Amino acid sequence: MKPFLLVLGFLAALLIVGQLVMGQLILSSHAPQMIKAHQHSGYATVVVSLLYITLSLIAIASMPKRENK
Q1: N or C end of the chain: smaller count of CB under 10 Å?
Q2: Backbone torsions φ then ψ of 38, nearest 5 degrees
Q3: Residue 22 CB coordination number (10 Å)
Q4: pLDDT 10s digits, 22-45
């Protein structure tokens, strides 16, 4: 599960940076036609990020507890 979480986390980071870049392009009026793409990639960003957070929390919760000596 660790490699899958690494890939999912990297994808989430790329989507977040993509959202930032598209948002800045739209705000600076260089690409007003990108509004729909920004909206759809925003949905994908939310889904991938929430999936990454959920699976990471499950992986952390399922780790064996350390024994205190």
Answers
A1: C
A2: -65, -40
A3: 18
A4: 888 888 887 778 788 888 888 999
* Among candidate residues 49, 25, 28, 53, the one with its CA nearest the CA of residue 37: 25
| Residue 63 confidence (pLDDT) | 83
Report the distance separating Cα 35 and Cα 13, nearest Å.
Answer: 20
User: Which amino acid does the sequence have at 55?
Assistant: L
What is the SS3 assignment for the chain? CHHHHHHHHHHHHHHHHHHHHHHHHHHCCCCHHHHHHHHHHHHHHHHHHHHHHHHHHHHHHCCCCCCCC
